[in-house]
Amino acid sequence: xxxxxxxxxxxxxxxxxxxxxxxxxxxxxxxxxxxxxxxxxxxxxxxxxxxxxxxxxxxxxxxxxxxxxxxxxxxxxxxxxxxxxxxxxxxxxxxxxxxxxxxxxxxxxxxxxxxxxxxxxxxxxxx
Length: 127
Fold this sequence. Notes:
Layout: E1 7-9, H1 19-25, E2 35-37, E3 40-54, E4 58-69, H2 73-76, E5 79-89, E6 92-94
């Protein structure tokens, strides 16, 4: 959540058809995990390290791993982003009924899903 109360995430969305696979492969998720749905999303900002110039053409870290909104142009000029943050509107929590009953398989996570995209890892553990 941002300082102004907006819900944000750095995790990519997971399509409904991929939820069972995410529940199987992600060690943080299980049958007690929740699925969150959002009515709309939009880029909000970044998590970044903010730098400033110093003597002898050097730079120093001023802040580490801070949220920087995209509207903060002056700060973004000196920021090295590590994660994109996406704002979530109309966020609702639901329970993935019947989706968490599969056992965690033994073996390696495949490099891609059946659709050719990376495997999903973006649900939220129950808190």
